[in-house]
Each structure stands twice: as C-alpha cells, then as structure tokens.
C-alpha cells in the first residue's frame, strides 16, 4: 500500500484552483513587472504620450480586478469602472486603437504565466479545466475597454476640441521637455505661449454627479483635464472669477502662472494645495496654507523638529492654548498689537500679556519675524 505522504502534493504546491488563484493574487507585483516588460518589448508606448506611472498604475489595477473576477470576489468601487476609465483615458491620450488592443491582450499571457507559477509542476490539468474561464474574463475586459475607447474617440473626433485635448495631455506629461512642448502646442490650445494663467486642481464633492470639468467646458472658461483624484483647470488670468462650482467642491489654486511651460508643475502644486482645503468648499492658495505645508515637509525631513516647544505648549490647558493660538494668528498677520487687540475685541495690554506668555512657554518671540515664522510652522493647524 502506498504511503499517503507520497501521494500528497509538495508543500509548496496549491491543492486546488482556489489555492492557485490565491497565490496569483499574492504575486501581483510580478504580474505587473511581467506585463510592463512585455509591453516595452512591443515598443508602442515609448513616445511619452502615456506616462510610465500611468502604465504601472493601470497594470496594477487591471491585474487586481482580473484576479478578483477569476476568484469570484466582489470588486471594490474603484475597480468597477476600470475598463471605462482606461478606455476613455487612452482615447484622450491619443493612443492608437491597435496599440491599446495589443497591450490589453497581453493580460491573458501574463495571467496564464502567473497561474503556471502559482500552480507549480503538475497543475496543467487544473489550468486546462479553467482555461475558458480565464479567457472569457480577459476577453470581456478587452471588449469593455475597447468599447469605452471607441465611444470616447468618436466623441473627440466629433468635437473640435479633440486636438486641444491631446495637446493638453502632451503638455501635462511633458516633464523636462515642458518648454519645447509648450511652444509646439500653444497654437493648438489657442493660448499664448508666454501668457499668464491661473491653474486650479478641483476635488469634486462625492455627493455631486456633475464633474467641474463639465462646468468649465460649458462656460468656455479654459482647459480642463480629469484625473482619478480630481480635475485640473487652466485658463488665462482674468478679472472675472472662476465659474461657479458645485457646493462643497474644494481645491487648490495657483494664480498668475507665467508661461505655458510652467503649467504642468503648477497643476501638481495646485494638487498639493487641494489636499489642505477644508470641507467647506472653495479654493486655497499658497499664502493660505504655506505654514501647514512647511510643517509637514519639515516633519518628514527633520524628525522631532520643534518637539520640545510643542510639548511645552501642549501642557497648557485647552482654553489657554486656544487664546494663544488665536493671538499668534492675528498678530503674525499684522505685526500690530493694536490691530490684534481690535480683531480680538480685547485690551492691547491683554495682547502684550499673551505674547509674553507665548514666549515664556515656547521660547519663541512673536515680535521677531524669524521666530514668528517658526511659530507659524510649528503650530499650524493646531
């Protein structure tokens, strides 16, 4: 009689299809790298039209979604419309249809190779039994991506703004070639190469269905580009305010940007600023949140920056801290004891006493500009 231990599969082999799929999910990073290497070998995405970060993120989401579908696991919200988002984005980026299809068809080969690794020797029979299931899943994804791509490209071709959308995409993804690309696309965009622009990054309210980009297009307010986390808006600097945005919509605004070449970096700056916008809506500018940004940057670069001063301040009771922070904010804005007293509806001696209390507690004299700046950075957002 054969020893049962000799009949059992090796410890490193899955015993079932479910086990193979589980290992496939754990191998996602290798799936992504395999896909990117195969894609690079095709040579279709070397023109810079699609950023490397975009390719990697799309591959990561794609294999996450396909693995979940093969496993029969429900998709999270951010993956349910992946095929539509990918097809639309590639159409706007000007990717050729045949190049898109060649890329997404690689998914089956990468998945199959990943399952072979996951199953190990002797798993071919299990793979054959589930081959149609894998192929159907991938083919459905390819079909959905292609449908979204063709629908968006048809809309762009019908719209006279198609060329401008692709030119704007080129500018946003130009990297170190921003100056050269700005010169090339200025005419297509209908904007002066050396003009002055306002750049915003808008984070839509989750409760609203209409995206801010649609509002801007309707009013002819400039260029708009939708990212996964928000919308970039660019227009020539004007006296009129931005078009009305849905209530609760917030974002970051970089005003008076000089030259088209500076627009891509300004979009990223506006995106950073949008992260500091409150929940009440509206735009924040660099002058509104510079101290909070400086605080976050210094905390990352210099661990423990200002810790002793902050800890001494935190020992005060809540009311005392609130009064001193209120005084810090108003006094730093004006440098005037009189103006601070008027703003806080208190006697000027009260302001002087609070400045003294702040100095005794933190060691920072708010009447000294360098120390006042340090105080604003340390206590921003408290």
From TrEMBL:
It holds the Pfam family RsbRD_N. Residues 31-162 form the RsbT co-antagonist protein RsbRD N-terminal domain. Residues 324-374 form the PucR C-terminal helix-turn-helix domain. This is Transcriptional regulator, PucR family.
